[in-house]
């Protein structure tokens, strides 16, 4: 689990990111989760936007994505979800203690 200090640090890093995934009418599926897990391995921190036509609410989408990709939910702000997962081979972010 992330501490409050670590979440604040990650939110500040995520502020400038552009969402690279969109969850729409189809909702969350296995293929999307695999792609997000791969992207997290490469980047560690991701923004995902939940479109207006998504049939599930953003909390459910965030829960499914974080559990499926084995990632930490940093925040949900508006229709944007921020996820973090420490990379095994491509570590870029050093979290505060």
CATH topology: Translation Initiation Factor IF3
Number of strands: 4
Approximately how much beta-strand content do the residues carry? 15-25%
Q: Describe the main β-sheet briefly.
A: 4 strands, mixed
CATH class: Alpha Beta
The CATH superfamily is identified as: YhbY-like
Low-confidence stretches: none
The structural domain count equals 1
The tally of helices reads 3
H/E order of the elements? HEHEHEE
Structural class estimated from helices and strands: alpha+beta
Average the pLDDT over all residues and give the rounded result.
93
Q: What strand order characterises the main sheet?
A: 1-2-4-3
What's the alpha carbon Rg, rounded to whole Å?
A: 13 Å
Principal-axis shape equals: globular
Helix content: 25-40%
Indicate the CATH architecture. Answer: 2-Layer Sandwich
Intertermini distance: 12 Å
Domain CRM: 1-96
Pfam family, one: CRS1_YhbY
InterPro entries: RNA-binding_CRM, RNA-binding_domain, RNA-binding_YhbY, YhbY-like_sf
Protein name: Ribosome assembly RNA-binding protein YhbY
């Amino acid at each position: 689990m992330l501490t409050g200090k670590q979440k604040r640090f990650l939110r500040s890093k995520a502020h400038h990111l552009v969402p690279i995934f969109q969850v729409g009418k189809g909702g969350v599926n296995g293929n999307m989760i695999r792609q997000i897990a791969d992207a997290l391995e490469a980047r560690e921190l991701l923004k995902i936007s939940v479109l207006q036509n998504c049939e599930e609410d953003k909390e459910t989408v965030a829960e499914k994505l974080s559990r499926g990709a084995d990632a930490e939910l940093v925040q949900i702000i508006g229709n944007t979800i921020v996820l973090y997962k420490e990379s095994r081979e491509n570590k870029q972010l050093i979290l505060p203690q």
